[in-house]
């Protein structure tokens, strides 16, 4: 990736927060790297180097600035937009695929050799997959060190390190202090009441989630970690929550008092999340059955709320159209609500093909409730093997820790019953669980039931990839090859499940009604042609047209 020195230096000199996460500033005289908005004195030009990722800066021998916490910057929006191999790789690394399956697993998912993938990543982001994953591990470990009372050895394995020595060496190299010193400094700050919000950027600082630890940690709830998720302003929180509330499936998710809560299934166990938009950040509370799932949990929270988007770029394109100008000025920062589970989103799309939103919620709730809560849930396909830190050890964490043993729940380990959190929210059924249901559990026409079964069979067999790193064009082709899935369903899944920012749904009734309300053509062919001016942000145009309906 080519970084224009003059443009980058101007951003640093003006401390422009809009560029946080886009690039990192290395200062050769001090040996540190910072975010562009670092409040420190602007370094001299001859002492500055710019890097496309935190991992690239670490590879150059630089450590993270303790003042601006560059790993707490929002992730680069570029990796959400790009559909090429590098963009897909960055999204998968952010979700922890390298930690779970290694570089061979990542390369296999993408269909390239390890050597070629390494070359492409180094050329684009200045670091290979191992270096990117290492940066993510270091930042995840720092959050656990500073916000929990877990033993340092437990944290080492929970963050994905192969040994305690590797953990110690990496923390010293990245932060220039030992792990115990990080913990002592955080406790001293908390004791004085002036503790800074510290952060971790999952995915090497160029993609994936960014989280900052909240002083106090757990709010007294067993098994929780409280974090602050950074985003680029503006964020239209009301529009985001309204969209999710309208489609919330009882028993799976809920929106109440300005907060969104849901159950989900992570690679190593069930979890429950609660997200509350605040000025400048989203307050997130994560209840994890396994602390190794911290990085993928934060990545999915960020993906769900579209927190790595660049709203100024999106609104700049859409606001240039007179049809959207007033709405953009009135409601800046509209996001595309995405998904924590690709299979769930695909089932939602199929169920919603010819029924109202309220009707789809009823059908989905009935389908989820039909799963036998006493039957073991199939483990995630890329779950870690047994060993090391399988669960939080109740004897290792004091009762006032920021991370506490998960609350006791009936049912065998990994069961759907165990996935229920304090609010009684469960993860959506897996493809295997849906396949095991009788026909009477579906509550829909036989043809639509057959479509869902065909989808579940393809996902269970590994023939259909609905993860954020999936190839977008290939996904649409594979979906439309299934019986009962057309362009609208495939487009909806691409927009929300894998985060394609440039999907348009010209045949959607809500889109056409919204277009008519704004004085735009409402027949599908003319509207589709007109929407070309909204590239590459047509998914955001869809959300605005739905709001205009």
**Major beta sheet, specifics?**
7 strands, antiparallel
In DSSP terms (H or I, runs of 4 or more residues), the helix count works out at 23
Shape: globular
Q: Strand order within the widest sheet?
A: 5-6-7-11-10-9-8
Helix-strand makeup class: alpha+beta
Low-confidence stretches: 193-209, 218-222, 373-381, 383-419
What is the first-to-last residue Cα distance?
41 Å
* DSSP strand tally: 11
Any descriptors?
globular; alpha+beta; 10% strand; 549 residues
Short synopsis of the structure:
The protein has about 550 residues and is of the alpha+beta class. It has 23 helices and eleven strands.
SSE topology:
Elements: H1 5-13, E1 24-27, E2 32-34, E3 48-51, H2 54-59, E4 63-64, H3 78-81, H4 85-94, H5 97-110, H6 114-125, H7 129-147, H8 152-158, H9 164-175, H10 179-192, E5 199-201, E6 210-213, E7 224-230, H11 237-247, E8 253-256, E9 259-266, E10 269-278, E11 281-288, H12 294-305, H13 311-319, H14 322-330, H15 342-351, H16 357-369, H17 431-435, H18 446-460, H19 472-480, H20 487-496, H21 509-517, H22 524-530, H23 538-548
Parallel strand pairs: 2-4
Antiparallel strand pairs: 1-2, 1-3, 5-6, 6-7, 7-11, 8-9, 9-10, 10-11
Helix pairs in contact: 4-5, 7-9, 7-10, 8-9, 15-18, 15-20, 19-20, 21-23
Explain how this protein is built.
This protein has 23 helices and eleven strands. By secondary structure, it is an alpha+beta fold. The strands form two sheets. It has a seven-stranded antiparallel beta sheet with strand order 5-6-7-11-10-9-8. Strands 3-1-2-4 form a four-stranded mixed beta sheet. A hairpin with a 2-residue loop joins β10 and β11. α4 packs antiparallel against α5, α15 runs antiparallel to α18 and α21 packs across α23.
